[in-house]
Amino acid sequence: MRAYLAASPLIALAGPVILRRRLARGKEDPARMDEKRGYASAPRPEGRLIWLHAVGLGEVLALRGLISAMAQHDPALQFLITSSARSSAQVIGANLPPRTQHQYLPLDAPTYLARFLDHWRPDLSVWAEQELWPGAVVAAHARGIPLALVNARMTDAGFNRRVRAGGLYGDLLARFARITAQDTRSADHLTALGASGVQVTGSLKSAAPPLAADPATLAQAQAAVQGRKVWVAASTHAGDEAQAVAAQAALWQVDPQWLLILAPRDAGRAGVVASQLTEARLPFARRSLGRVPSAGDAVWLADTYGEMGLWYRLASAALIGGGFDAVGGHNPWEAAHFNAAILHGPDTANFLNDYKALHDEVAAVSVPFGKLAEALQDTDLPDIGLRAGQIVHRAAGALDPLAAELLALVRR
């Protein structure tokens, strides 16, 4: 830890170069890049402010449920969500809870962090899942800001990487007043790294509220797909897309009422996906060009960010991506809110407990390679979707105890 903190001022020296390179690759928002150097682009609201940080898209969206639970305990609270990736900022921007703002987390340099903390003056700092920025954690702790780590998840591989960092993680984890983990294995890993009092509370994702959709856009889309057999392939990677395209080609050949909404995890890959659709002779409409599918289109290429709430509302079934690649799957709960039948590939390593909960209630379908078209024609799919919706409905109040415990840290 001492070595890291001693070297961290160098991050500020290299920061402008790093950010310019990321900007050139489209990884940064040019209008908000100064946030990465600690310059706020929004005023701090009056009153107590809870700062929550997550890295990945799914982790950021999962924080909404916790924010809603804390807001119910104290309607005067203000919230700040930080993240690092441009894509997560684009999506959360369309799904922000009331009294919530988003900013990018500054690079982990003392001067950047000082600017950030001087401006926002948070009353509580909540970190989600597994990525901890040592400089930010230490800086917040030094100012007496209570720290909590929630929804922690750590695989065996992640644990092995962190063990090699010596006492760094033990020092960091000792600064947290509250630590919760998604599962027993993650809790054991955190304890072995030096955390104390870790509690297993399950995943935040099943308790997050539904994703939003613009009413006017939804009405237009519903009119465009009326009478079609709509399914969505969501957050897809190359392997998922190969399965989805093959399945849609088979279905569409038999019945042109079938319509696939194909939403790549990385919208920047849309050109590659478009070429695959052309090669498969599947006519498509491209969302980024403002098109809606005509009766002759087999696919709606959803190459935008922040519209998954729209796509899930249109579909009766959802293939959740990441299962046909070495990715470990993605979050199934977003689709469950809309009673979409959840289908997934064999690899669900990152969501084992989530998919186990679904399968225990026959609320999801594991699809072998090459069997997706067959699975989509299963007459039991509507009932499977309803059962998934019932699970997330029951989970809605599950975060109240955790919210109360976190707010108790503020009052200390």
Describe the overall structure.
With 412 residues, this protein is α/β, with parallel strands linked by helices. It is built from 18 helices and 14 strands. It has helices at 2-7, 9-24, 57-73, 86-93, 110-120, 134-142, 156-163, 168-173, 184-193, 215-225, 238-254, 270-279, 308-314, 333-336, 352-360, 372-376, 381-394, 400-411, and strands spanning 49-53, 78-83, 100-104, 124-128, 147-152, 178-181, 199-200, 229-236, 258-264, 284-286, 299-301, 317-320, 341-344, 364-366. A seven-stranded parallel beta sheet has the order 3-2-1-4-5-6-7, sandwiched between helices. Strand 2, helix 4 (86-93) and strand 3 form a beta-alpha-beta unit. Helix 3 (57-73) crosses helix 4 and helix 7 packs parallel to helix 9 (184-193). The longest helix is centred in the first third of the chain and has 17 residues, at 57-73. The chain is globular. It starts with a helix and ends with a helix.
